[in-house]
Amino acid sequence: MRQVEHLTEETFKQKVFNWEKNQDWKYEGDVPAIIDFWAEWCQPCRIIGPILEELQQEYGDKIQVYKVDTEAEPRLAAMFGIRNIPTLLFIPVDGMPQMAVGALPKEVLKQAIKEVLGVEDPAQVNN
Question: In 3D, which of 27, 40, 23, 42 has the Cα closest to residue 89?
Fold first, then answer.
């Protein structure tokens, strides 16, 4: 079972996008991902964090949730032009990532997982 994983600049290059190797966007992962750009002091980040943990558990191996602490990794935040947090980056296996800003409700996140990442809600599939 996949777990929410915190990324550093180095692990980001291995698992998401290696900008030193590729000029154009090329996702390095094998399942769609969500990256949560957050900071410890950010109240909305503390609200959305547990929701993303729940989604990782519910979707299991179908998606990967990553977290990037914008305080610890300012270069990563700057590279994606992160100005407000939380900012979520939805990364399909093929295609360009899409960004959403703010502590979105769980249902909105599930909709984005379905529409952007192309992953059905496991609770709906099993019924």
Answer: 27
List the domains of the chain with CATH numbers: 5-118 (3.40.30.10)
Q: What is the pLDDT of residue 126?
A: 58
Cα–Cα distance, 26 to 42 (Å, whole number): 30
Catalytic residues: 42, 45
Closest CA to 89 of 28, 16, 40, 23: 16
pTM, entire model: 0.93
CA angle 82, 84, 89 (to 5 degrees): 55
CA 125 centroid distance within chain: 22
Beta bridge partners of 67: 6, 36
